[in-house]
Amino acid sequence: MCWGKQIDIYDYMDEKQNINITNLNISTENFYVTSPDPPKPKKKSCGKKRRKRGDILYRQTKFYENCEKRIFDGVGANDIPPIEGVYDIDESEEFIGFNYAMREKDPENKAVHFFVDDYQFNRLWANPNRYLDMLRRFKYVFSPDFSPYADFPRAVQVFNHYRKHWIGAYLQENGVKVIPTVTWSYEPSWDFCFDGEPENSVVAISSVGCMKNERDRRMLIDGYHEMVRRLNPSCIIFYGTVPDECKGNIIRVKPFQDKFRKAICEG
Question: Smaller CB count within 10 Å for the chain: N or C?
């Protein structure tokens, strides 16, 4: 950086010729010197150490979509992480939503589902390690069904399917007993929505939000039949209303809203 030397113009009068310096064409180039940058003031430390994961700053890893933690050998055209199957389950299990899991006092005899609004469990994707110890305490944990909304672009639907399977595989790898959740939208989603799902396993599905009109109801039923054809599940945990067209070894789970209404009526 160049630092200019201040010059008072009245100091430059030629006494012999009595000529003001302003009338002369004098370069001031010689009055500049090169000097190093002045030292910057040190920032005050707040006493907190910067967290690192390996050589990567913690604040930077949020842009890697969990690839800094684990990259699985995927299946299908979209490298979906596969989830291992569960082949036996006690039908007397009690199921609770992820939004109630942290305050649950008796987790050993309960299973955690994610049939709630996505914002309730996006935090699991943002920081999965934070919830490992808590989820290990439960008897079962469903893979989180990030919604494959039919009106979303295909790329978003595939990414939500990928996220569901990445979390499911990561939880299994870290000692959590995971029951695969199967989700789909309209028929074009069948190209990817069954990738990574185990065959002949216990699976979980939900009809919540899919019974509002005949078109959505048909989407649910058609996808159900395709799931049965491809995966041949040994048992289907069905959360919500079960259409008459859906057959098989089904465990019916009433949604929280129905239980709440029943409690009000009987209270």
Answer: C
Retrieve residue 37's tokens.
């940058």
Q: In this structure, are residues 92 and 110 in contact, taking their beta carbons and an 8 Å threshold?
A: no
Tokens 């201040």 belong to residue: 6
Backbone torsion region of residue 31, taken as left when φ is above 0, otherwise alpha when ψ lies between -120 and 50, otherwise beta: alpha
Q: Are 231 and 141 found together in one domain?
A: yes
Q: Which domain holds residue 166?
A: 52-266
Residue 138's contacts (CB-CB under 8 Å, 6 or more residues apart) are 101, 104, 107, 108, 110, 111, 112, 176, 177
Over residues 236-246, the pLDDT tens digits come to 999 999 999 99
Query: In the block, which residue shows the tokens 């003001």?
Result: 20
Does a structural domain hold residue 39? no
- Residue 41 in any domain: the answer is no
pLDDT tens readout for residues 8-62: 444 444 444 444 444 445 444 554 455 566 666 666 655 555 444 444 555 555 6
Q: Is residue 208 part of a domain?
A: yes
**Cβ atoms of 182 and 197 closer than 8 Å:** yes
Q: Say how many Å lie between the first and final Cα of the chain, rounded.
A: 79
Specify the higher pLDDT residue, 162 or 262. Answer: 162
Our count of domains for the chain comes to: 2
Q: Where are the beta strands (DSSP E) in 110-226?
A: 110-113, 140-142, 178-179, 202-206
Helix (H) or strand (E) holding 167: helix 154-173
Q: How far is CA 23 from CA 6, 10, 17, in A?
A: 19, 12, 12
pTM of the model: 0.74
Taking each continuous run of H as one helix and of E as one strand, the counts in the chain are 5, 13
Token pair recorded at residue 224: 């159900």
